[in-house]
Every structure is written in C-alpha cells, then in structure tokens.
Amino acid sequence: MSEHIARTRVALYDIKPEIWRRVEVPLDLSLKGLHDVIQAVMGWQDCHLFEFTIGEKVYGLPDPEWDHGRKVRQAKLAKLESFIAQGVRTFDYVYDMGDNWQHAITVETVALADPNQKYPCFIDGERHAPPEDVGGTPGYYEFLETVSNPRHPGNRRMLEWFGGPFDPDDIDTSSLRQRLSGIAKQRNAAKTTYYKRTLN
To answer: Ramachandran region of residue 182, left (φ > 0), alpha (ψ -120 to 50) or beta?
Structure first.
C-alpha cells in the first residue's frame, strides 16, 4: 500500500527574523508523534508539557493537575490524517507552558511518499531555536543581546549557562537530521514488527 506524507511547516510565533522548519511526515503519525518531530527539528529537549489546539479541541498529555478543568484529549490517540481528511491545514502547538513557545503548524501539501526515503524527513528551515528555559520571547531577546556583546556584564555567565557560543543563524542541521533519523528508525521497526505479526 502506498504511503502518503504531509509537507509541514513549523514556525515560532512572535520572533523576528522568523525561526521555522519544513519537514515531511507520514499521514498516519499521531499528534504525539508530531510533537516528537517538532522537538527534533526545533532542537527542544522535551522537558515540558505540550498542547495542540485544533479548532476548539486541545490535545496533549492529560494531567488533572495542569489541565485546570479543561478537557485535554490524548495526543497519542489522534492521527494527523484524520484532521487533514476534515480539511484542517493549520493549527497551533505550544511547548513549555512557562516559556510559552507557540508554533504555527501549516500542512502545505499532501503527496505520495518516496519509497526510497525514510520519514520523517527534514527539508529546510532557518535560524536556531531559543534555548530551553530562557524565559520566553522577552528572555530570548535579552539572551541574544547578552551573548552577542562581549562587553555585556552578563556575557560570560550567560554563555556558561548555555554551554558555549550561540549562533542564532545556525540551525545545526546535522543534529536535527540525526534526531529525525532516530524517530524514523523507531517508526520503521514498529511497522516491520506489526506486519510480521499480521502475517503470522
């Protein structure tokens, strides 16, 4: 059976110049799987809660302690293909409710997968994502100002906190491709196991 993929654009709100990624993902990916892909291509470390908002519904990891009376549906039970079948092409994703990193997700095209390509697959993008726990958009701008100015009194401390030099224009494609490759291998291994079980 031919597989279909969605070419999807992920972009952070409220930061200029824009920080964005384009990635091709299988249509049968769950929203939890899409979360894993976004973490990989943006360089996040999956240390915090996340949510997708699609229409009036919210999907994530239900937790009564954090849901505050809202209904949060299981992201792992919601498939991307079901939303695309309903005509959904744009929705929001937020990571880390403290720093509140809001992303615009756009499904640009749906097409047949390349049988020689393993998915998910990175296409292109621009600019390094903010570090974890930097303090949201205001904290990120302050971070950039500090690390880009050697004379800033907090420069050395901030670079030590980050763990080295920070280049806002370097998206580190080798690292994100490696992370995506790990997701693709896990997915292909799971599919192989499933097919073997159905044949036996």
So the answer is: alpha
Does residue 91 contact residue 50 with C-beta atoms inside 8 Å? no
Local confidence pLDDT in tens for the 200 residues of the chain: 569 999 999 999 999 999 999 999 999 999 999 999 999 999 999 999 999 999 999 999 988 777 677 899 999 999 999 999 999 999 999 999 999 999 999 999 999 999 999 999 999 999 999 999 999 999 999 999 999 999 999 999 999 999 999 999 999 999 999 999 999 998 877 666 655 566 66
Coil vs helix vs strand at 103: strand
d(CA 114, CA 139): 41
Could you tell me if 8 and 22 are in contact, meaning their C-beta atoms sit under 8 angstroms apart?
Answer: yes
Element (H, E) at 52: strand 50-54
Can the peptide bond before residue 168 be classed as cis, meaning omega within 30 degrees of 0? Answer: no
31, 75 contact by CB (below 8 A): yes
Amino acid at 199: L
Rg of the chain (C-alpha set): 18
- For the chain, report the end-to-end CA distance as a whole number of angstroms: 19
